[in-house]
Amino acid sequence: MQTKLPDYMIPNRLMWIKEMPVTINGKLDTKALPEFNFSAEENNYCAPRNGVEVNLCEIWSDILRIEKVGITDDFFRLGGDSIGSLRIVGRVREDLALNISVKDIFVFKTIEKLYDNKLKDQVMHSNADVESLDGIELTSSTGEIGLWWIQEIALFDENKFKECLAKLVPHHEAFGIRFKKDADGKYFPCYQTNLDSDQINLVRIK
Description:
Elements: H1 51-64, H2 82-96, H3 102-108, H4 111-133, H5 142-151, H6 158-168, E1 177-181, E2 187-191
Antiparallel strand pairs: 1-2
Helix pairs in contact: 1-2, 1-4
């Protein structure tokens, strides 16, 4: 098989069974096949060396549905595949804010090698960046100042508000609609485009 297939396509484990279970239709009954035990052997278990590796072991354990994963366990020997590697890449980026690729998992295979060859420098640079910014006063950009100004809560000027509203009425017909009562006591709409600020009454709701 090694002469015909790439490494990642070669079965990691083989199981001998007397016969292949089939359904009543003569097809392979996959549900009746015995399950592999992909759990890492206790004697070969290697514990994580740092917090990042602890998180990686938890991610692998969750995606591979294995109770315990060590840093020297081969991803593919634990039952991993290309789909699983895609999910791991996504989880590492989302949960740990670290960058790896599917190729990295295929090349390094274990958490230990993945950390030493791909993630260690990222973690060190990330920590250095955080420490270097600690206590430093930064200068706000023009855009940030503008956003702060928009969201700043200013004192409410009632007269200014009335003046602005009065100027809006001629430009928006909906603001100029008034309801008046006729001789029969019925209300009818009419337009009043000219509105003086003194005609506006504000009601405070608390």
